[in-house]
Write a structure and sequence with these properties.
The complex is a heterodimer.
Chain A (H helix, E strand, L loop, with lengths): L14 E9 L1 H11 L9 H6 L9 H16 L5 E8 L12 E14 L4 E10 L2 E2 L1 E9 L2
Antiparallel strand pairs in A: 1-3, 2-6, 3-4, 4-5, 4-6
Chain B lengths: L17 E2 L2 H10 L10 H6 L11 H15 L11 E10 L8 E14 L2 E11 L5 E11 L11
Antiparallel strand pairs in B: 1-3, 2-5, 3-4, 4-5
The chains are: A alpha+beta, B alpha+beta.
Chain lengths: 144, 156
């Protein structure tokens, strides 16, 4: 395990730049296949509306995976994640067009947890259509 | 309909091993558009100190969710209405990343059951171990079965 970022090089407030992820219906179908989560709320809008959703929504785990990518690309090693958790506060609604939805994800160092273990806590923000889609999104990462 | 509180604390037997393959990891990473070579190129993984390609951090959820689905969500005695289920929150604790060649078992347990504004809120824990019996990761999943007349915003 080899993180690229050094514990000594970060401070509370160090920012991980915001990245944009575009997700369309085809992406959701692909993720459904890869993950094995075939819940029709992620690909069938008739079904989604019947159960009270505004439209097809992205898998929460899809958004969570893209947020993990922001953190792991920054740290330089996905295996540097020690702990990672999110709350799915609002669904990412994915319209049936070629544009889909956009998720904007960024993070910042919220705490330096342990000088010995060289762990920091990152607080992650994720929004789509101007709304927060993840709450209490936090990752504990072991740095170099 | 509120879920039966007596299910809290219930633990299910470990699943049969799930064998993690390189191509499955590749498929999963590609579905995210994630091109990090540590997921697809054994050399790149070895350069970071891993014996083989590793999986993206949330990949383990596909294994724990499958286990929870078969054993807990579809437990007829529990009676959860899966058609109304959305993912409430999700947390992982990692001892090490999942990697190709792993044979992983999941032991699922129900941590809590709550009822809030007609929604059933179920917290399931999945402990993931490798073939040697060593801990790999633990997944904490909260599922919300929305009340039949609720709009999604009201349940969150």
């Amino acid at each position: 395990m080899t993180a690229r970022i050094s514990y000594d090089a970060v401070e509370v407030g160090t920012e991980v730049p915001v990245r944009e992820f575009r997700v369309n219906r085809a992406d959701l179908v692909r993720y459904a296949g890869a993950s094995g989560d075939f819940n029709p709320i992620h690909w069938n809008e008739t079904f989604a509306k019947e159960v009270g959703l505004p439209d097809v929504i992205a898998h929460g785990a899809y958004t969570m995976a893209e947020a993990a990518r922001v953190v792991s690309d920054w740290a330089g090693d996905p295996g540097a994640l020690v702990e990672y958790g999110v709350r799915f506060t609002r669904p990412v609604v994915v319209p049936n067009d070629d544009k889909g939805a956009v998720i904007e994800i960024g993070a910042k160092v919220a705490a330096k947890l342990d000088d010995e273990a060289r762990t920091v806590r990152l607080d992650i923000t994720a929004t789509s259509a101007g709304q927060k889609v993840l709450g209490r999104a936090r990752a504990v990462v072991r740095l170099a | 309909m509120a879920l039966d509180q007596s299910f809290v604390g219930r633990s299910y037997p470990p699943t049969a091993p799930y064998e993690v393959g390189r191509e499955k990891i590749r498929e999963f990473a590609e579905s995210l558009g994630d091109t990090n070579p540590v997921y697809t190129d054994p050399e790149a993984a070895r350069a970071l100190g891993y014996p083989d390609v590793i999986a993206p951090p949330t990949f383990v959820f596909t294994i724990t969710f499958k286990a929870a689905g078969k054993q807990v969500i579809e437990d007829p005695q529990l009676g959860l209405d899966y058609s109304r289920v959305v993912h409430g929150d999700q947390r992982f604790e990692y001892t090490r990343p999942v990697r190709a060649g792993d044979r992983l078992t999941v032991t699922s347990a129900i941590d809590s059951i709550k009822s809030l504004a007609g929604n059933d809120i179920l917290s399931v824990r999945g402990e993931v171990h490798d073939e040697a019996g060593d801990h790999v990761a633990t997944s904490f999943t909260t599922l919300v079965a929305r009340a039949a007349d609720a709009e999604v915003e009201e349940s969150r």
